[in-house]
């Protein structure tokens, strides 16, 4: 089989059935820190890899690696990975990471992410739960949440300019990078995402994305430390469930929980677990390029 490697951004029409609108946005936007390499045979796209680069720390991350099913396992994954690695080495990148999900109970490894190729053992980053959204929306705890005095729930599309600046200033101060509500904003749905204020100050958020026609992704949940023990995180979760469950045809809710976000994991095990349909785990693999 004769294959061709190419820049996906220059052949969008060829790869339109394999990529999503978000993929196209990432690789074609002005001053993008993403790139995609594709592999084709006979003029037809059969695979691609999408990479995010972070020049300030000499690190790159593979967002997605996709090969048509009938070609999976034929070595195309390694070809794409090696091409990416060489491209990054030319620009003096030091580290490449690959993040991917595995079903619960599935061995967290892939044939093209082996120690012999320089890859580390996978590190667990987060848990992914697919739930019955309509079922959980009828749970007693969702319906009985009441907003205490001085607290206010609001739709994220109502976030003011000054509040945004305050959140930007708090980056790495009172919330960690991986729980930022401002990351990948082009993917979030502000009208479905929920914020929480206390006496006029933003203290928490539940950031929501549309993952599919019938599924929402509850991606990032955070509450300031001073208010966690008061159970205020439950207000955010319940409100996000109420808002999204009202969308016609919305059947599933996907919860992503950072393994180190102990409060969210505890809440989920107590209140969300009874409505889980499928569980996955998200791992990160790393490779030194120098």
Structural account:
With 290 residues, this protein is α+β, with helices and mostly antiparallel strands. The chain is built from nine helices and twelve strands. The protein has helices at 12-15, 21-28, 76-90, 133-137, 140-143, 161-169, 225-228, 233-245, 262-272, and strands at residues 3-7, 34-41, 44-54, 59-67, 95-103, 123-132, 151-155, 194-198, 201-212, 215-223, 252-258, 276-288. A twelve-stranded mixed sheet has the order 1-2-3-4-5-12-6-11-10-9-8-7, with helices on both faces. A hairpin with a 2-residue loop joins strand 2 and strand 3 (44-54). The chain is globular and about 65 Å long.
Short key terms for the protein model shown above:
290 residues, alpha+beta, twelve-stranded mixed β-sheet, globular
**If you average the pLDDT, what whole number results?**
92
Distance between the termini: 32 Å
H/E element string?
A: EHHEEEHEEHHEHEEEHHEHE
Helical proportion, percent range: 25-40%
Overall structural class, as computed from helix and strand content, comes to alpha+beta
Query: Sheet with the most strands?
Result: 12 strands, mixed
Query: What share of the residues does DSSP label as strand, in percent?
Result: 35-45%
Concise synopsis of the structure shown:
Helices cover 25% and strands 36% of the residues. The protein is α+β, with helices and mostly antiparallel strands. The protein has a twelve-stranded mixed β-sheet with strand order 1-2-3-4-5-12-6-11-10-9-8-7, with helices on both faces.
């Amino acid at each position: 089989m004769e294959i061709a490697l190419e820049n996906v951004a220059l052949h969008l029409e060829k790869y339109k059935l394999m990529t999503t609108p978000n993929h196209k946005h990432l690789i074609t936007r002005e001053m993008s820190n993403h790139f995609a390499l594709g592999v084709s045979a006979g003029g037809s796209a059969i695979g691609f890899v999408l990479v995010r680069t972070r020049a300030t720390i000499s690190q790159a991350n593979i967002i997605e690696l996709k090969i048509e099913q009938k070609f999976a396992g034929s070595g195309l994954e390694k070809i794409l990975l090696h091409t990416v690695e060489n491209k990054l080495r030319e620009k003096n990148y030091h580290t490449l990471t690959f993040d991917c999900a595995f079903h619960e109970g599935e061995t967290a490894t892939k044939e093209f992410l082996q120690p012999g190729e320089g890859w580390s053992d996978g590190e667990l980053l987060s848990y992914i739960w697919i739930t019955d959204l309509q079922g959980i929306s009828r749970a007693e705890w969702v319906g009985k949440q009441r907003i205490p005095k001085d607290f206010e729930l609001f739709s994220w599309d109502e976030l003011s300019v000054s509040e945004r600046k305050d959140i930007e200033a708090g980056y790495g101060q009172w919330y960690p990078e991986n729980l930022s509500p401002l990351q990948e904003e082009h993917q979030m749905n502000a009208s479905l995402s929920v914020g929480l204020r206390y006496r006029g100050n933003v203290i928490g958020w539940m950031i929501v994305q549309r993952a599919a026609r019938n599924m929402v992704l509850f991606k990032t949940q955070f509450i300031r430390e001073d208010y966690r023990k008061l159970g205020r995180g439950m207000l955010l979760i319940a409100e996000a469930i109420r808002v999204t469950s009202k969308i016609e045809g919305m059947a599933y809710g996907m919860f992503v929980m950072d393994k180190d976000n102990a409060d969210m994991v505890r809440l989920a095990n107590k209140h969300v677990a009874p409505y889980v349909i499928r569980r996955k785990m998200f791992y990160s693999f790393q490779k030194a390029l120098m």
